[in-house]
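just leaving the lab so this will be short. what follows is a protein written twice so to speak, once as letters and once as structure tokens for the fold. can you read through it and tell me how you think this chain folds. thanks a lot i owe you, the record is right below.

___
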Amino acid sequence: MTQKEKLVLVGNGMAGVNAVEHLLKLAPDKYEVTIFGSEPHPNYNRILLSYVLSGESNVEDIVIHPYEWYRNNHITLYTNQTVTAINTSAQTVTSDKGVTVPYDKLILATGSNPFMIPMPGADKEGVMAYRTIRDCEIMMESAKKYKKAVVIGGGLLGLEAARGFLNLGMKVDVVHISDAIMDRQLDRTASKMLQAALEEQGINFLLAKQSAEIVGHKRVTGLKFKDGTMTDADLVVMAVGIRPNVELAKNSGVACNPGIIVNDYMQTSVPNVYAVGECAMHRGVAYGLVAPLYEQGAVLAKHLAGVETGPYEGSVLYTKLKVSGVDVFSGGKFVDEEGTKAIRIHDEFTGVYKKVVIKDNKIVGAVLFGDTSDGTRLMQMIREETDISGMAKTAILTDSASGGGAVSGVAEMKDDAIICGCNGVTKGTICSAIKEQGLTSVEEVKNCTTASRSCGGCKPLVSDLLAYTLGSSYDKNAVKESICSCTEHTRDEVVEAIREKGLSHVREVMSVLGWKNEEGCSKCRPALNYYLGMVSPETYKDDSTSRFVNERMHANIQKDGTYSVVPRIYGGVTNPTELKRIAEVAEQFNVPTVKFTGGQRLDLLGVKKEDLTAMWEALDMPSGYAYGKALRTVKTCVGDTFCRFGTGDSMAVGIELEKRFERLNTPAKVKLAVSGCPRNCAESGIKDLGIVSVDGGWELYAGGNGGVKVRVGDLLTTVKTEQDIIEYTEAYLQYYRETGKYGERTSEWVHRLGIEHIRAVVENDEERKQLCTRIDQALAVTKDPWKQAIDSKKIQRDLYEVVELT
């Protein structure tokens, strides 16, 4: 029996273990493998740390290779041990726990260290990096005690950390030295679109700011900038870049500058010592993205297995991922330069932006925002330097939108085309798994190959590959989508179980349906709370702990820790008495800013938390629900009361609608508008439901959205009377309440169900009557939350009294 060679891997991260996994497939009996990892965990997906931070996943969910994998492949694993010395003459490594292991081949995959800005105060308590599971645990523990986080760094890691803090109920500022976020991965247009999307989610940006000093006594209390301004902070996270971790290599005589210098087969300057991943410096470049590191590992694995392979000649960098739910892609040289020309598509209605940069009749770079389905095809054209001189330039970005284009697009890809950049999964691997394992859904492909397991941005391509491989037997619409990673159950299954089993509170649902994470997460807990209230409005007691901070406080938290108070002003119509009262209250509580909102209301900004209930009592007006997943506003024009073009009394209709549906809980926020004529001054075409007066009646438009992804509403129906408007609105909103996914705006809901289907439901007399009855039941039990807080000392004590932290 041939003696196995001894292979030692220093570093239990994604790049090194992926190389070993490839090697075991190519030469399963050639090496006896030992792996050292500094962290007390098996190999996990660092890209998914933000999901752990936000509570959407636990540590077990992001493990790539569980302990069983090491045992099944006869790998000796030393976790929580750091290799501190390499004897390159004796060919041994020694750990900080005194373990010494000999090697015939040694792979250094020591990764990188987060860069900490050397500024005054950087050593204070509450200042940290964001790199490991332990970092996540510290940040989650801090969120239980503190309220304000500042993330320095507007790159991918910083944005993901900020999103995690939001989900933990913290306010968060993102500080970036440039005036555009993710400026290394996106052009200015895409960057500003991403910023707008993230601001809508609640992240506050402080751009073109250079950090100067972290202030505070023992613990951080704020961050001061070089322009003299500052922002408060209970926690400061630095996400400003990484440096190759080369101390071990340097001390062992391995050449570094600044990373570990390797050749095209990942060999270092020392015989039998290799390097791969973020610690390696290849042709003057150290890569920090996963796909290039996997490409390096594939070449190294073939070399160590003795399999013929071409050299690693570097990677064309690209990024394809979801940033806080927003699809983005960039690849190659996407910045406009002399000698280049660009093709652009910028659809502000759907929030889609696409750009390809062309030089000498070849695509050299691309940026995609909102729709990244063209990304893999474009990267193939960039890598292969495809001559596009014979192609219609306008077709380069529209293939996937044409009939059958998506499937034909993946058909043209080579088997080695990377589909999942996060996990380095190729088209060939996915297609083989579909055929050999009988896979029929994206979820099954994910579990089998890890494709789409990380950011999920490649799910559409995986779906296209299923359609390409399975043909007509693939039912794209049959793909099961669970409400979050805590459960395999879909939204419909959860709602059905609540109804059939009579489930009555959040923890009961999770227990009965076998939640994997018994505490739930920030995605499923608010959803379950909504579904329970929707199913049983008359008996369910709302679980305020399962609501986001704004809904729990019944006021929008601002970036400086104060709150906004927005009283209800029905239809945007007020009177001198109300205005005078608002003005007097603003003076009484020293409100620094009073602003008219886009929904024709007055926003009192800068209110201290401890003043909220007293201020609500002094106003003696109902909550405007500016913070809630509920009816926000009904915007109106002056209608035929004053306008010479008006054909309908838009103000009266708007007031009646707002009084009818205020405090109605919905899957996402809802905005209505009523226009007194087709001139549409109230912008009814881009509201969740817009009403427009026309000759002989009223037109109702459904599913509009004026946010980041602008969508013009579809004509739902035409009615004759103002009472008809109320009735059809009742049916429409109740059907949305009963069939919408939690967090799904009507624009997405209408697109998913189809306007024809929704129209058929609300125009059916019997179904409409039943929907109206059920919404009556839901509305009959609503109460004004401001009044409840005013009348309850317990609510005031629990939510609004300021407790000094020691």
Remarks:
- The longest strand covers residues 352-359.
- Residues 399-405 have pLDDT under 50 and may be disordered.
- Residues 722-739 form the longest helix (18 residues).
- Residues 155 and 184 are 8 Å apart (CA to CA).
